[in-house]
Automatic annotation (TrEMBL):
Domain N-acetyltransferase: 223-379
Lineage start: Bacteria, Pseudomonadati, Pseudomonadota, Gammaproteobacteria, Alteromonadales
Gene Ontology biological process terms in this record: rRNA acetylation involved in maturation of SSU-rRNA; tRNA acetylation; tRNA wobble cytosine modification
Pfam families referenced in this protein's UniProt entry, alphabetically: GNAT_acetyltr_2, NAT10_TcmA_helicase
Molecular functions (GO terms): 18S rRNA cytidine N-acetyltransferase activity; ATP binding; tRNA binding; tRNA cytidine N4-acetyltransferase activity
Annotated transmembrane regions: none
Protein name: tRNA cytosine(34) acetyltransferase TmcA
Keyword Nucleotide-binding found: yes
Presence of keyword tRNA processing: yes
Source species, domain of life: Bacteria
SUPFAM superfamilies reported for this sequence: Acyl-CoA N-acyltransferases (Nat), P-loop containing nucleoside triphosphate hydrolases
Length: 379
């Protein structure tokens, strides 16, 4: 391109999320054109070396790297070159996540991970792409039922809790398997190293690791995401990402743009060590509540009032103002210290000042989680 102007048609309603994207770009210095703007020839020497190493089937191979480094291509190429490729199973959070891998190994057999868990185990070797997008308990169960060969994951961004996966799964794998080999790929293959667009995306969408210390002191309390200092927002959002294996940029946009969503931050020694995502919901209008009770409407953003109204067939519940604890997360090094319970107590006191009738939550049932919520007075 020879130049030009970028004109953004912004929405009439203010959007802190859009403003964030613009601000992060404007903070960058002008980009100088380069005559060498070509991606490396493929496969790179690093990729070829990794494919060769992956042929060692006596080990469990774990490939951890940032997006765009060619992890999936390497797994697919190694699988395509394997003598027993027909005796292997590929899985991923969704089949779309394994698209690149399957392109390089078109005869590979893909099976959804939840289907694999329900099936009896076999001797087929298991390859998992974007492993951090699958719950850790499921990964552990899968590799116990099927002999693991290769696992790849992204350690930053929204492909599940990548950093948490890297820590917990690797520790578990090294205790469980006799031979574990760790691999990484440093250089991008879809763009040049140091591409300013990658840096902008990492900054704007909070894809990189958060700073360890807050540069601006804040107190523990409830905040709207749009009013938080940058490093506090980054630390809080990183905790939320690691607490939930299916996250997306929509989560950040929702926190920034939705006026009824808040974050409770527990700050200790200059760091956010715990966070709770709070959503104010309801009340629903009488005519809408009737439609919800009949199962004809499911208004977005009102999970507790619409679910309880329908399942309990009680429209009066739709007339209440609710606060839902959407997620709660505590920094790994501070867990098992009752901090989460302290956060919920603080949330309960805040709710009492917000004209809220009821406090609740919704989660995928696990005995330990159910015990935690009951212990904190949720029934």
């Amino acid at each position: 391109m020879a130049g030009g102007e970028l004109v953004l048609l912004t929405p009439q309603q203010p959007s802190p999320a859009l403003n964030r994207l613009i601000d992060c770009w404007q903070m960058r210095s002008p980009i100088e054109a380069t005559s060498d703007a070509k991606p490396p020839s493929l496969p790179t020497a690093a990729q070829q070396d990794l494919v060769q190493q992956l042929q060692d089937k006596e080990s469990v191979h774990i490939v951890i790297a940032s997006r765009g480094r060619g992890k999936s291509s390497c797994l697919g190429t190694a699988l395509a070159q394997a003598d027993n490729a027909s005796q292997c199973i590929v899985t991923a959070p969704r089949k779309a996540n394994a698209q690149v891998l399957l392109k390089h190994a078109p005869h590979a057999h893909f099976v959804a991970w939840d289907t694999l868990i329900e099936q009896p185990g076999s001797t087929e070797r298991l390859i998992i792409d974007e492993a951090a997008g699958i719950p850790l308990w499921a990964i552990q169960k899968l590799v116990q039922k099927y002999p693991a060969w290769m696992l790849a994951t992204t350690v930053d961004g929204y492909e599940g809790c990548g950093r948490g996966f890297a820590i917990h799964f690797v520790e578990w794998a090294e205790r469980t398997f006799a031979h574990v080999k760790m691999h990484t790929l440093q250089d991008p293959i879809r763009w040049l190293t140091g591409d300013p667009l990658e840096h902008w995306l990492q900054q704007a969408l909070l894809l990189n690791a958060a700073p360890r210390q807050l540069t601006q002191s804040i107190d523990s309390g409830v905040y709207h995401a749009s009013e938080l200092p940058e490093d506090a927002l980054h630390q809080a959002f990183e905790l939320l990402l690691e607490a939930h294996y299916q996250s997306s940029p929509n989560d950040l946009k929702l926190l920034l743009d939705e006026p009824q969503h808040y974050l409770y931050l527990h700050v200790n020694n200059g760091s956010v060590i715990a966070v709770a995502w709070l959503a104010l919901e309801g009340p629903l209008a009488d005519d809408l509540a009737l439609q919800v009770q009949l199962g004809k409407r499911r208004p977005a953003g009102n999970l507790l009032p619409q679910s309880l109204t329908y399942f309990l067939q009680s429209p009066r519940l739709a007339a209440l103002r609710w606060c839902r604890v959407s997620r709660i997360a505590v920094q790994e090094s501070h867990r098992r210290q009752h901090i989460a319970s302290n956060v919920l107590n603080a949330v309960r006191h805040w709710v009492a000042t917000q004209n809220v009738h009821a406090l609740g939550t919704s989660f995928g049932y696990e005995p330990g989680l159910a015990q935690f919520w009951r212990a904190n007075g949720y029934h």
